[in-house]
Amino acid sequence: MTDPRDALFKSLSDPTRRALFEQLCRGGEQTVGELTAHAKVSQPAVSKHLGVLKQAGLVRDRREGRETHYRPQPDALSPLLDWTSEMAAFWERRFDDLEDLLKRMDQ
Amino acid sequence: MTDPRDALFKSLSDPTRRALFEQLCRGGEQTVGELTAHAKVSQPAVSKHLGVLKQAGLVRDRREGRETHYRPQPDALSPLLDWTSEMAAFWERRFDDLEDLLKRMDQ
DNA sequence: CTGATCCATAACCCAATGGTTATGCTTTGT
DNA sequence: ACAAAGCATAACCATTGGGTTATGGATCAG
């Protein structure tokens, strides 16, 4: 029932969280400590954000001793790409609709 | 200073708002009344959402007498596409990094 | 002119969210 | 065995955010 896009958009709507995901995409797998070092918030905040990203399927974690390694899962972005192109497709269709085109032309 | 992606992601993170934008992409230009008819919230709520979408550049409005017509502006989605492919690009690069690939292979 | 329609804004409420500090559980190192 | 490190969770707080009803300003119809 819950649209997977919801989780995706919501996860990425927060700048801090998006920065974390970017950091992971740029640098690949990293521990919470490394991520916290680059972030501008506390370690618990980072952990919470990573939890949200994980639940959205954007990251995966791997425990190794006392440290947890997170890595990006960019495949999870595909629903977002799909939705965007879907919207673009509707947009294209409107150019084929002469009636609508004329309506738009007179401002 | 404020990343334009912020406004985009935040605007689209709300299901009601995304539904409004989809409705506009599917049906083209529509009045607030028409949009409210399809929405599951009150007219003021629709107006507020349209305001947010407008400020994010996702829609444009056109007043005609006492009614306001809104139309989608899908071009505004391109920063989103750009960001997504940028992240995907980082992801691709990691496959070229043999060291990282090996590290990932042993789980 | 008057009443109705269309929409935006105001004022308010409650839930969700992002941040913090405090704490506790493993794991590591000595 | 013990202290420290790494991380997650708990508890709490302030702000944001999305919803509502109420209202007001244009515009149209009669």
UniProtKB/TrEMBL annotation, chains A, B:
It comes from the Bacteria. Keywords: DNA-binding, Transcription, Transcription regulation. It holds the Pfam family HTH_5. Transmembrane segments: none annotated. Residues 1-92 form the HTH arsR-type domain. InterPro entries: ArsR-like_HTH (IPR011991), HTH_ArsR_DNA-bd_dom (IPR001845), HTH_MetalResp_TranReg (IPR051081), WH-like_DNA-bd_sf (IPR036388), WH_DNA-bd_sf (IPR036390). NCBIfam families: HTH_metalloreg (NF033788). This is Helix-turn-helix transcriptional regulator. It comes from Microbulbifer harenosus.
